[in-house]
Amino acid sequence: MAPITDTKAVRRLAPEDVRVGSYVIPMGEVLEFLCRCDVVPGAIVVRRFEITATDDVRVYRVVGVFLPYVHVRDAHGAHATLDLRMLRLGKVPKGLGKLVHQSLRADKRRERKGKKK
User: Does residue 21 come out as left (phi exceeding 0), alpha (psi in the -120 to 50 range) or beta?
Assistant: First the structure.
């Protein structure tokens, strides 16, 4: 595999811009809470908080798009369906996404060979 010499940043992706074949990575999760409003007695409001993704961040390849859901596959072949109403995705440059998937698959193959011996 050739090294990536192109240094592009991961950019936030609008849900309507997600395309099959793109490489994406979770950048944040939106949490919603019902809260009492002190300004208007008895009123309940929805508060949204965005939390930056830090756990189990993986590069996914988009397999299918049916908004607001996206069907993805990780480098190990595991499939998942992501809800874009509660998840913010970033677009990974194609060369980098492909490199990550290839290297993780190669690591998994080496791991399997080591177990067979």
Answer: left
The Cα angle at residue 24 between residues 22 and 29, in degrees rounded to 5 = 145
Domain boundaries in the chain? 20-116
Contacts of 30 (CB under 8 A, 6+ apart): 48, 49, 50, 51, 85, 86, 87, 88
Task: Dump pLDDT digits (tens) for 63-93.
Answer: 999 999 999 998 888 999 999 999 999 998 8
Q: Of 2-11, 32-41, 104-113, which range is least confident?
A: 2-11
What's the pTM? 0.72
CA distance 101 to 107: 10
For 60, the enclosing helix (H) or strand (E) is: strand 60-66
Cβ atoms < 10 Å from Cβ of 71 = 15
